[in-house]
Design goal:
By secondary structure, the chain is of the alpha+beta class. 42% of the residues lie in helices and 15% in strands.
Length: 73
Amino acid sequence: MFWGQLGRENKQKGFEPNHFVDISDPTRLAHVLWPSFLHRAQASLRYMESHLKYYRAHGQLAGVEWAAGYMVL
C-alpha cells in the first residue's frame, strides 16, 4: 500500500489512488491534520490550506467532501 505525500506529487509519478478513506467527519479530518500542528514549522496557514486542498481533491475523486487516497496493489 502506498499513500500520497503532499508536496511530492511531481516526484510520485504513477501514484494513482485506487482506495480512499473518507475523512469528512470533523474528528477524522482533525486527526489527519493534528500532527502538522505539533511541529511549529509546519503550522502556517498556507501549509494547512495546501493540506486541505490536497484532501479535498482526493475527496472529489471519491465522491465525498474530504478523503485520504491510497494506492493498494
